[in-house]
Design a protein that fits this description.
8-stranded antiparallel β-sheet, Beta-lactam-related, Beta-lactamase, alpha+beta, 366 residues, Beta-lactamase-related domain-containing protein, signal, 4-stranded antiparallel β-sheet
Length: 366
């Protein structure tokens, strides 16, 4: 279902944005707003959840005031920084033209959202077992390494498929082919078939940062639930997280959600997804099945072999060098979840800096 895009269209006009942006140029608040309006027909737009999650201010203490000062400093070189402790908003800062209502780019944080959608499908009985081959649910993937891989190995990024990036950690395949898919000249299934050969490693053997594993999950979710990935996510995770503002998720020519990148939401709503994860890690919300799934997703199951800030991967969630659960994206997009102190930290930015991860870890831990 593609919802109306009037809200952002009016916002773009109000901001005076004149030039339409291609998806790969959507790296600032102004360009994002312009691009989302330009590509409205290619988007699934989330409505606010039926029951919004309120983020009340945290009680003012010496510690929260100190954290607020540090958050303001952090946000000055980003678009946003937000910290929640025990459900209360400790600080919320914006810069560089962003605000609490600005949709921002998730980049590869997107990859964690399909994993949560898979968990909801599993717990709803739509997916019978994570060890089932993907092609059991998505027969159009038969004859590809993605179809032969188990749902679990797709979540683990150990599908055994060829690495289109060529080096095991690029996380992107052929840019021209990906561009064709986003421009609706090639479908997601066609892209998966084009790069569906077996790689150097057997399924389950080695982590390869290949975003097509997430794309295969998009097809699995649609076929298993009867709903495209973004629609299923909106009906399950988004509703339970209490999303507040419109969020946008790109679709391919057949209405499948693009599952590795091209997701836009406010920093507040990224943080709400973090709270959804935290509540299931701590057994405070969700079914026992989903609690078990999220705990497994957050385990350090696979060593990446690189990326010092987040050296381990589970079933769609990163384990950071600090031992906490993270969602990571290019150019400084982060959601961190600290179970011990009940904190969620969220930030969106235009670039990674040498201090991004150390400062984010400090704010999450203190």
């Amino acid at each position: 279902m593609r919802h109306t895009y009037l809200t952002w269209a009016l916002l773009t006009v109000a901001c005076g944005t004149a030039q339409a942006q291609a998806w790969y140029q959507m790296d600032s608040p102004e360009r994002i707003q312009s691009g989302l309006v330009t590509h409205a027909s290619r988007l699934h737009v989330f409505k606010p959840a039926a029951s919004l999650r309120v983020l009340p201010p945290a009680p003012a203490t010496e510690n929260t005031q100190r954290l607020a000062r540090e958050g303001k400093s952090f946000a000055s070189s980003a678009y946003s920084a937000l910290l929640i402790e025990n459900g209360n908003l400790v600080f919320e800062e914006y810069a560089q033209g962003a605000s609490a209502q600005t949709p921002l780019n998730a980049y590869s944080m997107t990859k964690s959202w399909p994993a949560l959608a898979v968990g909801e499908a599993l717990c709803a009985g739509k997916i019978k077992s994570l060890d089932d081959p993907a092609q059991l649910y998505a027969p159009q993937l038969k004859g590809t390494a993605y179809g032969e891989a188990s749902v679990r190995n797709l979540l683990r990024y150990t599908s055994g498929a060829e690495d289109p990036g060529g080096n095991g950690y690029v996380g992107i395949h052929s840019l021209p082919a990906f561009k064709s898919m986003t421009e609706h000249k090639m479908s997601l299934v066609e892209l998966l078939k084009k790069y569906g050969g077996s790689g150097r490693f057997k399924a389950g053997e080695k982590f390869v940062y290949n975003g097509l594993d997430s794309e295969a999950l998009s097809i699995v979710v649609r076929e298993a639930t009867g709903m495209a990935l973004p629609a299923w996510f909106e009906a399950t995770v988004w509703q339970q997280a209490g999303g507040e503002s419109p969020a946008a998720w790109y679709l391919d020519s057949e209405g499948n959600g693009i599952a590795e990148v091209l997701l836009f939401a406010t920093t507040r709503d990224f943080a709400r997804i973090g709270l959804y994860v935290l509540e299931r890690l701590t057994d405070k919300a969700g079914s026992p099945c989903m609690q078990e799934f999220v705990k497994e997703a957050a385990k350090p199951l696979v060593a990446k072999g690189y990326w010092d800030a987040a050296p381990q991967w589970g079933l769609g969630l990163h384990t950071g060098a600090d031992g906490n659960t993270w969602m990571f994206g290019h150019a400084g997009q982060r959601v961190g979840i600290n179970v011990k102190n009940g904190r969620v930290f969220a930030t969106n930015s235009m670039r990674d800096t040498t201090m991004t991860d150390s400062s984010a870890r400090s704010l999450l831990a203190r």
